[in-house]
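#structure-requests
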Amino acid sequence: MAANLDKEAYYRRIKRLYGNWKKGEDEFGKVDAIVVSVGVDEEIVYAKSTAIQTWLFGYEVTDTIMVFCETKILFLASKKKVDFLKQVAITKGNENANGVPPITLLTREKNESNKPNFDKMIEAIRGSRGGKTVGVFSKDKFPGEYMKSWNDTLTAEGLEKQVDISAVVAYTMAVKEDGELGLMKKAAAITSEVYSKFFKERVMEIVDADEQKVRHSKLAESVEKAIEEKKYLGGVDPSTVEMCYPPIIQSGGNYSLKFSVVDKNHMHFGAITCAMGIRYKSYCSNLVRTLMVDPPQEMQDNYNFLLQVEEELLKELKHVKICDAYNTVLEYVKKEKADLVAKLTKNLFAMGIEFREGSLVLNSKNQYKLKKMVLSISIGFADLTNKEGKKEEQKKYALFVGDTVQINEEEAATVLTPVKKKIKNVGIFLKSQNDDEEDEEEEVDDAEELLGKGARGAALLADRTRNEMTAEEKRRAHQKELANSLNEEAKRRLTEQKGEQQIQARKSNVSYKNVSQMPREKDIREMKIFIDKKYETVVMPIFGIATPFHIATIKNISMSVEGDYTYLRINFYVPGSSLGRQEGNIFPNPDATFVKETYRASNLKAPGDTSVPSTNLQNAFRIIKEVQKRYKTREAEEKEKEGIVKQDSLVINLNRSNPKLKDLYIRPNIAQKRMQGSLEAHTNFRFTSVRGDKVDILYNNIKHAIFQPCDGEMIIVLHFHLKNAIMFGKRRHTDVQFYTEVGEITTDLGKHQHMHDRDDLYAEQMEREMRHKLKSAFKNFIEKVETLTREELEFEVPFRDLFQGAPYRSTCLLQPTSSSLVNVTEWQPPFVVTLDEVELVHFERVQFHLKNFDVVIVYKDYNKKVTMINAVPVNSLDPIKEWLSCDIKYTEGVQSLNWTKIMKTIVDDPEGFFEQGGWSFLDPESEQGSGAEEDSESEMEDETFNPSADETEVEEEDSDEDYSSETENSDYSASLGSEEESGKDWDELEEEARKADKESHYEDEDTSNKKRKNRSSTLPPVKKKRRS
């Protein structure tokens, strides 16, 4: 046997087995020796005898007898297996070098009765402790002459007194080492992959295609075949993977929430339960989910309660007794929904090499204490009644949810199968048009009975003509409903928020709090300008008095030399001067006297002077500039910090298995050059650059977590849009993203490339593999983080391309997620709009002859600046409307509006705004009725077909005169007149056109010279009109 045996693992585990035996607790205290005999039986999948072999050696060793005595261990096996076991048997002189009894290997003879070997083993049992009682696994019965002869020998020697030690050995093996946990986590991950990528997708296909003739057993067989394909196993070797049990799929009112059921019924679209478990390298995992097709509200409520029960159970599964966890959960169900207690099913058991450990199950009597174990927890509600069910299969349903979990010491249990199970992830909601189609079919059947099959098509066509609404009409009807509720909701919200906004006055900077702080410098005594750098103050003489001015009061300074004199001009901030956009013209004491000062000094040196008098002004100019620059820099930093919410401190999780992504770049950059680093999920996120810089992002500060895959992009991105800004790199940021490049951003165009160049083909193949690898790594990280946060933090993925637009400097692709509209691949900066904060969307410049239009997003917070997206292609208008039509009001217009003034008007007088109709001024239907629409349409037609405005006026006058003469005494409406006129034949129309041309020709003759007249008379009338 060429297999290697992990000696370290064997010694650790045999020590643990002997340690528990020596303690003498429970059945261990009753036995003198332990006998494990394993035969050959293909039908036995799980047995304690084979499980302990796999636990100790990593393999099953069939046709082997193991005897564990107090001072020695004996193995009887064939020659090949003895060679394999020698790896742990040969130690230093076969002594007790590793703290465990020495091993004696006996080789089994095939042609003999093995009596000498049996006698040696019986002798060893007699010499172990009392030598009377043998511990065995009583449920394990292997067939064959070899096993029979051994059992007969035990009986003949008077060792028939046997104690079942299955429970105590199972408890010993249930405590998992780190290596075992790693294998079970991998098994759980594979189960999750097969469920998500194969089973769930297959069920979606069946529901979409309405294939209700698919049998549950056939679907289960397809799942078993799927584990033979590497793409569903996350790259794991298929030979190391097998099913723990045949997948169990149930629906249509027949449910048995156990793991020993085979269902061959046809699938029914209601509640579809699926249980599947996969073994990886002999270690098991389990996953149970319920998919619901168009679930009624009561079913959704029961399912949400089931998830709450599971959460409650996970909180209780710590290092406690199993019965205590059971009783707590039962009390919770009794307290919340007592009527569901009788329908609650509980399948909780320890899991490892064996799928189900019978001695470690969840019930009210189990006194075993939970330790570092892995459990399969599966809870459900059986035999529930669907009040809305019409068919027999719809009247009964069951809900079943289960996961593989790891027990922690203090915290709640960790879920190892991170498959999402919220109602939005397992509910399949079909379009409501199905009901309408059923009604149509019923009506068609009635028509067929009355009129025969020939009238079926006609009846259906007439019904559709009368009742069927187009998508645009449905959108308009829904938009009207939204418009009615929009104004009411906005008015109510503004009323609640009403309150006087406190206008902040400009900060008053005081130079010196008392006279004693004034410097006693020579320049001040000589009435020169002095700059106090410590207090950032300029002391200058005003009317012969040294007067201090803080640097903040100085707007700007300038110095000029004219002839023999130097002039220093100091401009102060005064009422009426601009203080900047954000500060406003607000002063703490606007009635005070303000100065604007100019100083002059000679450039000529007087006799006896040591320096030129203008030197003081030149030094003052230079120092004031320096102090002013330093002050403004400090003010800018303080302004950045304004409004920064103090974050909680990051709690470092010292566990080495924290989810981690390496070799990522951060945007915005921490320093001038971009640096790589790693993103690690502790109790919150921490990014650490290679230089040692740290950026912490708290889970509760994340508004949107967005994962942008690398499909069609050159980078793969994790983007965090924050609720409150954080500071790093001396600036505040509300958007932080971590990314890595997938391929080459730039291409060398000078390089000679050929279509079939092997290097290029290899590079493309490598890039494809790189993309797949990165996507898998990022998805794995996301799933671990979502599991770690119990899905409180959910990553959104942009689900389709919506439209191109320019929210900032350049055009980019905008994509929707479940709760936002984003573009995070281009940092210009990134674009993230939260849909819950949007009041309405207005489309500007929507005209037929324009290729682009603009999108304006107005927020519920009217003090917030509106967002403009420019240069949106006009063919994107309908897709955007379709996307917004769910719950956001939109309007459109032909003009560009001044939104700054509009929002200021609304904020200044919200009551007046809503009294005048609120946002209805944006809706063209509210301003003019259908008649006005027809007029505008006819005007547009006139503008389209007529070459000039002058001709339009002439033709309108002619048509008015004709209309008045023909219908002067008539009672018909104007529309009738227009219809009669439109019914003229070609001769009449040509005659009218000729008259109109002559009249316009005469007008031109009056206003043109002879040369122009002669030239125009030879041209067609229309050409002549254009030149006039």
